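Open question from group meeting: does this chain pack into something compact, or does most of it stay loose? Before anyone orders reagents, we agreed to write out a predicted structure and look at it together. Recording both the input and the output here so the notebook holds the full record.
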Amino acid sequence: MHIGIAFDLKADFLAKSAVPRVDGPDDLLEEYDSDATVAAIERVLTARGHRVTRLGGGRRFAENLLRERVDLVFNIAEGHGSRSREAHVPAVCEMLGVPCTHSDPLTMAVTLDKAMAKRVVASCGVPTPEFVVVERLEDLARIALPFPLFAKPLFEGSSMGIRRRSRIGDRAELEERVGQLLGDYREPVLVEEFCGGAEFTVGVRGQGASARTIGTMEVEPLLVPREQFVYSLEVKRNPNWADEIAYRVPPQRPREEVERVEKVALDAYRALGCRDVSRIDVRCDARGTPKFIECNPLPGVAPGWSDLSILWDRLGGNYDTMIGAILDEACARLKLA
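Structure tokens returned:
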């Protein structure tokens, strides 16, 4: 097949004076990929006998897709500029009748808005922490949720805006943290009950009734009590991250406990209409009840660094088989050779 890769690079945005904002936080480009990730995907697809073309993202993607005759788009493009940015590439593909990997534009848009995703999964009986969407500081007056709470930007990923201080213990901290998030990211803030139990991320592949879990990874804190732990950007960026956390694959927990976590992830995946692959974050509350936190239908695939890559490696696979599995799921769904 002739496969086009859709992607957005940090380097592309750094070249634009308007992004990142000079007054913005240092994680505004956290979602975007490096050329090394695109090259790694290209290498895997080429090794499987496919012709590969780099299509890029944004307007360049649309222009290149109109010019190139590709059989399939392998999509890792995060998009830019709106809460539906992850839906841009699949929407263009859908409009032009070009098949693509990963979820469709509706799922991409719904899942990036964390409150919308929670409303959908909750309507299907999937447990999720109670939450409030804050659009301005005055909205804090109507929050009656018990502390501790957790605050993060409403429609970002890759732990953008999630710091060690995202766990909030009182009203003064809530006002300070939410005010900073509103100013930094210029979008609403999700404030939800903080779940102080074990934290997991679950890989899921397939579609609908055929969807199944890839595996589950527990993120175990090593330096702070679990009830205080935040899987923050500081942890993920720390070159000595192994001093702070341990990735347990499989989790060192009773099988029935892991199965409850995986059921929440699988039920959420199906409720949101995900396809091909997604990564679902689940955290247990103080009573040990697993709850849906968020869904990433466009999980990072940076070799050796992204959570899905780490999970896949620790299950005994490698980067080539992971990218191959995503491609195979799409081909089976689309009935492509």
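Observations to bring back to the group:
The chain has a mean pLDDT of 94.
The radius of gyration is 19 Å.
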